[in-house]
Amino acid sequence: MTVVPPTCTITHVTPGQPSARRIDTWYRSERYVEMAYSMGVPGSSVPVKDRRLKSRTGAPGAMPSRAAVSTDAAAASTVCSACSTGCPAAPKARYREPVRSDESRSGSRCGGSHDSSTLTGAPLARRGRLVTGHPGGAVIDDGTVVMAGGTIQWCGPTSDLPAGLDTEVRQVPLILPGLVDVHCHGAVGHTFSADADGARLTAAHHASEGTTSVLASLVSAPSHVLLEQIAALRDVVADGALAGLHLEGPFITKSMCGAQDPAAIIDGDPALLKQWLETGRGTVRSLTLAPETPHFAELVQLCREHGVVPSLGHTAATASRTREVLGADGGAGGVDRQWSATHLSPRSVALITDAMAAAGMSDGHYTLGSLDVLVQDRVARLAPAGRTQSGEGQETGAIAGATSFLLENERRCVEWGIPLADAVAAASSTPARLMGLDRGPTRVGAIAAGYRADVLVATGELELVQAYRAGTSQTQERKDRADSSV
């Protein structure tokens, strides 16, 4: 039996804390890894909460300055995800600026800049410092990526570029794979829920910030609410806007609920889980549960049968209890060895955001599931009961997700001394592998021939210049960044 290496997820890091030395505990120290054992399912991971990373703020009370509109280049549908009509530019609608209430636009209903050149399938080639996303892999100082038809046609050292390429090769500073976020609750004022249109806008905005594959995380809720959310979002997964769904609960521990509604937390129920997974029709990819919940082994077995990655979280279980359930026959993947954080390596670390509705927005009041959240100085916490509008002078609640985007977390890790190739892999190929997104007809998470053309152009300081998803632009190129860096 192949045993997947132990895996942890690092998130919520505050500038200056932990230090580069503490972050090095990814690889060595048990002290900063509370729960980090993969569960024997191919591509499994276990989220670990750390601390938070601040994000840039948006304009008060408004959408950010740009919003992406895109659909999967391989989708058969000809309906634009922005305007839900038979827009002639679909399925490759390019970026658009948000329309203010005092403005009007001509052309497509969605207001998109539908450049027909993006629909011709002509190759795009970018040349620069190339990071493929593979952990421990070499950084190619002078590399080229060729994209066509929504996939990567060729990549490698520019000196090996095949002759006869019939396209302009544009010089750029740095080339990275599109990022993969496997724990994300929302952005730009939207929380992943039964709102399919809001989910598409949220996924599009994450793509415009460099995260081209997103799992929509759903918090604990009554069964009928989860069924409604799963049914609504499975179509968003099916059309390619989302990479899958992640159920964060409700089979967790009330005393460790964090920013989840304790009234929605229940004991493990295999019948309910089966109903949710069947409703998802293969779109649920991950389940967070506590090892002390009843019927733990049965729940894990159901995950196996449906190709779902089980992960430990929101748990009060002791180390001995955790080792017991992980090693039990018929338990978590039949893992036959005890966990030790000394087994951690760059290949087994995945970055996430845990982003919520305030990502890309200003401070203010938001929701996470059924709970109110107050965001101040980009820190999201449960709002105290009887709060004032300002929230001042009151006791703060539990951390309620984050407001960062994944590229920011990757950049912070590099600032702390993590090698560039490892930091990039932790936000791309590793989470993709853990969730099985690097397999099948649409592969993501790395820059390699045959993978979907999810490619980022960035400055040497990891500031985004341009993002491509399936070879289609997701952002207006930041020419000021590009020109000053090449």
Average pLDDT value?
Answer: 74
Strand content: 15-25%
| Individual helix count | 10
- Give unreliable regions as ranges: 1-120, 329-342, 386-394, 482-486
Our Rg estimate from Cα atoms comes to: 22 Å
Helix content: 10-25%
Read across the widest sheet, the strand sequence of neighbours is: 5-4-3-6-18-19-20
Distance between the termini: 48 Å
Q: For the report, how would you describe the main beta sheet?
A: 7 strands, mixed
Number of strands: 20
- Protein structure class: alpha/beta
SSE run: EHEEEEEEEEHEHEHEHEHEEEEHHHEEEH
Based on Cα principal axes, name the global outline: globular
Give a written overview of the molecule.
Helix 4 (270-280) links the parallel strand 11 and strand 12 (284-289). The model is unreliable at 1-120, 329-342, 386-394 and 482-486 (pLDDT under 50). This protein has a seven-stranded mixed β-sheet with strand order 5-4-3-6-18-19-20. The protein is globular. The protein is α/β, with parallel strands linked by helices and 486 residues long. The longest helix has 16 residues, at 223-238. It is built from ten helices and 20 strands.
